[in-house]
Structure formats: structure tokens, C-alpha cells
Amino acid sequence: MENEKLFELMEKFYEEFSDFRKETREEFKEVRADISELRDTATKIEIINETEINPKIQALLDGHVNHSEQLNRIEKEVSRHEEVILRKIR
Predict the structure, then answer these.
(1) In this predicted model, what pLDDT tens digit does every residue of 36-75 receive, in sequence order?
(2) What's this model's pTM, rounded to 2 decimal places?
């Protein structure tokens, strides 16, 4: 009788363990699919960054540099005119 109970207990344990393994495998498949999807998304983001965002940032930076250079030229010209005006006043 004890052997029978022990066998039933072992059988139950084996079934539960088998179910656990099956669930774990399914969850791993889902995790792998999620990781694959994340990789695809990251690749798309990298492509968008390289083809769309970086050129726009570079254009903004170039515009900033151009405006800074233009402001420096204007400042020099204003200073030159200021000196001329001050000489005429004296």
C-alpha cells in the first residue's frame, strides 16, 4: 500500500514537473519573440536616427555656426561704425 501511494505521489510530481517545463518553454518562446521584436525596433530606430534625425541636427548646427559668424561680422562692423562716429564727434 505504501508503495502505491509513493508511486502516485511520484506520478503527480512528474506530471506537475512536466507541466512546469512545458509552461517554461512556452514562456521562453515568448521572451525570444519579444527580444527579436525589440531588436527589429532598435534597428528601425537606428536607421531613422541615421537617415532623418542626424542630418537635421547637422543642419541646425550648421545654421547656428553661420548665424554666429554673421553676428560676429555684424558686431565688427558696428564697432567700426561706432569708432567712426566717435571720431567725428570729437
Answers:
(1) 999 999 999 999 999 999 999 999 999 999 999 999 999 9
(2) 0.60
Q: Tell me the C-alpha distance between 41 and 55, whole Å.
A: 21
Q: Does 1 have pLDDT greater than 80?
A: no
Rounded-to-integer distance, Cα 86 and Cα 36, Å? 72
Cα torsion for 79, 81, 86, 89, to the nearest 10°? -170
Residue carrying the nine cell digits 532598435: 42
Greatest CA span in the chain, whole angstroms?
124
Q: How far apart are CA 52 and CA 25, in angstroms?
A: 40
Backbone φ, ψ for residue 52 (5° rounding): -115, -50
Q: For residues 20 and 26, give the distance between their C-alpha atoms in angstroms, rounded to a whole number.
A: 10
**What size, in residues, is the chain?**
90
Q: Which grid coordinates belong to 18?
A: 512536466
Classify 47 as helix, strand or coil: helix
